[in-house]
Amino acid sequence: MNAPVYTNLVLRHSYFEATARSRVAAVLDAGSFREFLPPEVAQPSPHLAILDIPGAFDDGVIIGSAALGGKPVLVIAQEGQFMGGAVGEIHGAKIVGLLRRAALEKPAAVLFMVDSGGVRLHEANAGLIAISEIMRAVLDTRAAGVPVLALVGGSCGAFGGMGIVSRLCSAIIMSEEGRLALSGPEVIETVAGVEEFDSKDRALVWRVTGGKHRYLTGDCAELVEDDAAGFRQGAIDLLAGWNEPVPSSAGLRAEQERLSRRRQRFAGMRDGLEVWAALGVPDPRQVSLIDRDSLVALKKGLPA
Fold first, then answer.
1. What is the model's pLDDT at position 6?
2. How would residue 11 be classed by pLDDT, with cut points 50, 70 and 90?
3. In the chain, what are the domains?
4. pLDDT digit string (tens) for 103-126?
5. Average pLDDT of the chain?
6. Percent of residues in the chain assigned helix, strand, coil, to nearest 5
7. Contact in structure between 151 and 20 (CB atoms under 8 Å)
8. What is the biggest distance separating any 2 CA atoms in the chain, rounded to whole angstroms?
9. DSSP state of 227
């Protein structure tokens, strides 16, 4: 008996489940990545060593240069599988150094593959200072005319300080599986109680912080499939027509006013379902069920 023949079979590799190094290899042009501070010259965190906590030679973040669609880019990729991608002193210094290099060399873009729950509490103030330095470096890089694109689709999402950093970037590309917020669900539940936010209600978590929600509310520029090819093409498409004005105080004030109006519009709402209804989605409960292309079409049909 002959074995069945399958045609048009496409192998997909989940971005959500991938390691930082496999994301770098799959998103960028093949063979183009050159790592800065590779293993033989790396400096693991001295703070973790003092606490007898195992470190990592790259301290949970990879930086380097590469090409994307033939254009030169600099790359940051956080490893969510090491301490939840949390930012410590060495981790943050590598990111800041890469961004400062971008402001000087002016590549086509910086790709920031965010996968982090925020600050590494083991390093306390050092981690908090690192986050503030990253924020400043992102804005300095954008002011130098270099777009910084945040790619959010990892298992740790973009929370805490890295949630703020992501929103400071020029644009965000997310998958449905990606999550973006200031405080993580577990943090909210711990501080305010399960009545405020049930972190075990996974459907609620994604309705409030997930990629579909962020796309509908305009927090991310591109919604892509959960694979490296989707993130790669999303970044290429954004850069193809890129014409971002240099950030200015007037532009920042306008953005703050827009966010203030949005806060008033959605005041008191506790679930993405309520927000989607307010946006004009005819059947909010279908949002979680429809595919990426259908959601993109749905957004185009919403009232301005």
1. 45
2. low
3. 20-180+220-247 (3.90.226.10)
4. 999 999 999 999 999 898 887 888
5. 91
6. 45, 15, 40
7. no
8. 72
9. S
